[in-house]
Amino acid sequence: MTSSAEPVSRAERKKQELRREIIDAAFDCFAERGYHATGIADVATRLGIGHGTFYRYFQNKRDIVDHVVDELVARITGALTAENAPDAVSTLAEYREQSARIGESLARIFGEDPRVPRLLLFEAPGIDRAMAERILDLFDLAAAMTAAYLSHGVELGYLRADLDVGNTARAINGMILGSAITTLRTPEDQRALSEAVRRVMYDGIASS
Amino acid sequence: MTSSAEPVSRAERKKQELRREIIDAAFDCFAERGYHATGIADVATRLGIGHGTFYRYFQNKRDIVDHVVDELVARITGALTAENAPDAVSTLAEYREQSARIGESLARIFGEDPRVPRLLLFEAPGIDRAMAERILDLFDLAAAMTAAYLSHGVELGYLRADLDVGNTARAINGMILGSAITTLRTPEDQRALSEAVRRVMYDGIASS
DNA sequence: GTTCCGGAACTGACACGCGATTCCGTTGTG
DNA sequence: CACAACGGAATCGCGTGTCAGTTCCGGAAC
Q1: For residue B44, which phi and psi values (nearest 5 degrees)?
Q2: pLDDT tens for residues A12-63?
Q3: Nearest Cβ partner of A207 from B159, B192, B200?
Q4: Is B130 near chain A, with CB under 8 Å?
Q5: Which residues bind DNA (chains A, B) (predicted)?
Q6: pTM for the structure as a whole
Q7: Residue A82 falls inside a structural domain
Q8: Nearest CA among B150, B141, B143 for reference residue B92
């Protein structure tokens, strides 16, 4: 990843550092007060820099949210792909374990810092058509990943052969989405909710 | 409903009519261009009235979104409560039918006019803390309704006795939420998605 | 039936205020 | 000392909300 040409001088480091700090500060502000309610001045003040300096690092206000969202998306997709290849499992029990592991990863990201789901789900979509599309893209990506897991399971035979892979993936992701939103109010009983999701997935709701 | 004292004069009718037209026009604008991107002038122009007139009917810009959302919420809760009392069913088969019926109602509201989910899920939460809370309240309300259905099923024995009613309700609503969001891009295969949701609920995903 | 009157409703030019972006004098650095 | 980075005052455009003038309407007087 970071192995390409690195002409990083001494002070060049400082610049990149400030750049990241600005992104972080912007994230803080956007998540707390909302995108439209925060001004460039707010972001700058939080860092103790002049707001003119901001424009030495980013084109404009709209420019920076993209970078903020970039980071969040990277964080999430990173957590999802780490050590969780679809073909790493071959039985229902293993699959169940893996889904629990993935659910835990997501719960950690969303639960530890509710600002993440707030920004991604509540703030971002209302900024722009373009940003709304980005969020929808993210959903589609997530659906594709989930679908890959399901397909693998169907092939190996531990999931229903007649599973509508694509739509079931959306349904499952919907439950995860619902969980993420729930953390906005009650970051506590994440565990129980996550368990309930898995019970629905594996056992359904009907009595035996 | 509309049986209370009605001192409605002739011209009074006109006022109420215009009032509603303004709400509808505002809905159109907010859903198309987004809340922050639309000005009062846009709403007024769409109706061919001066934007000053707007202020004779509503306090300010923030005021009217509340009314717009009111109407949407009323439309949804109306569709959900109509002929669908939790205690109207007593077997799993009936319950399954009822959930299909409810799903169809929601699919109709969301699918027929994607502007409804767009405004409610993508625009509204980013307007305001207060509005975000309203949307969360709506989720909570929906969860409570779903939980009531589940509780009834547990009591009559056609749903799992050890069902975590509250959290399972959230999970199910999450799937519905996911469906609503899906309509933003593909208003078509609503049927298949809805079916997939029900399969997950009743049969789970594992192979028998 | 016609005219006139009073008040309600409507209008759009205007006065703000606010925040994004720019610009240039200042400050720090090699 | 030259050069780059910084800061914040100044600029600029935009959208909200106001208000004084105008139009509209129903009903009373003739």
Answers
A1: -60, -45
A2: 778 889 999 999 999 999 999 999 999 999 999 999 999 999 999 999 999 9
A3: B159
A4: no
A5: 39-58
A6: 0.91
A7: yes
A8: B150
Residues B106 and B201 placed together within one structural domain of the fold? yes
- As ranges, strand C nucleotides with an atom below 7 A of a protein CB are 9-13, 18-24, 29-30
**Parent domain of B109:** 61-205
Are B92 and B40 in a shared domain?
A: no
pLDDT in the model for residue A8: 64
Q: Is the CB of B185 under 7 A from strand D?
A: no
Query: How many residues in chain A?
Result: 208
pLDDT tens digits, one per residue of B156-168: 999 999 999 999 9
Band the pLDDT of B3: cuts 50, 70, 90: very low
Q: Do the domain assignments include residue A48?
A: yes
The pair phi, psi for residue B59, each rounded to 5°, is: -55, -55
| Contact between the CB of B49 and strand C at under 7 Å | yes
State how many domains chain B has.
2
Give the gap in angstroms from C-alpha B55 to the nearest C-alpha of chain A: 23
At A71-129, the pLDDT tens digits run: 999 999 998 888 778 888 999 999 989 988 998 899 899 989 999 999 999 999 999 99
Cβ atoms of B205 and A160 closer than 8 Å:
yes
Residues 54-113 of A with CB under 8 A from B: 92
